[in-house]
Amino acid sequence: QSKYMFQKHIFITGFMGSGKTSIAKKVADMLAMNIVEMDSEIEQRCNQSISDIFHMKGEGFFREMEHALLNEITESDVKSVVSTGGGIVLKESNVHLLKKHGIVIWLKATPKDIFSRLSNDAQRPLLKDNMSIERIEKMMNERDSAYRQVADFSIQTSHEKIDDIALEIVKFL
Ligand code: S3P
């Protein structure tokens, strides 16, 4: 299979802990496409963990980096499967770029599942000090309309295996 079988990027979006990174990897493998994990790329560029970037430079700085990276990706000729950060939809300009340059997949999960997946994870600065199902629910409610607005396809990840979810996504494409 060609590395460039798609004319557009495939953006994997959704809340923290919805499985974006592992599902993006699987989809990229299946399609023999390049993969970009935005959070890891930002960590490498800053030589700092996401958590340290938030604490030492602030969320605003992180959002600038995130936007600049998305811009760069969309300008590239190499089409990639892109695992985005959960907050990518918070900037209207990002929503515009996602819609214009890619096929957007929204991974959905229940607050309860997100809670159990993330409760042993210290790497989510926005939830680290204040993790509860209620808080996850509240953040999700605030973001759902933005995810919905940008999505071309959505899929529940709560009770499915990664391989099955990736297959559903590839079938949609
Ligand atoms: C964030 C999600 C994180 C990371 C940062 C902010 C968010 O990515 O970009 O901590 O605002 O939802 P994941 O969705 O990969 O956890």
Automatic annotation (TrEMBL):
UniProt binding sites for ATP: 17-22, 124
This enzyme's EC code(s):
2.7.1.71
Q: Which cofactor does it need?
A: Mg(2+)
Q: Does the keyword ATP-binding apply?
A: yes
Predominant location: cytoplasm
* Any single GO BP term: chorismate biosynthetic process
Q: Which of this chain's residues are annotated to bind substrate?
A: 39, 63, 86, 143
Q: What family is this?
A: Belongs to the shikimate kinase family.
| Job of this protein | Catalyzes the specific phosphorylation of the 3-hydroxyl group of shikimic acid using ATP as a cosubstrate.
Q: How does it assemble?
A: Monomer.
User: What is the official name of this protein in its record?
Assistant: Shikimate kinase
Give me the gene this protein comes from: aroK
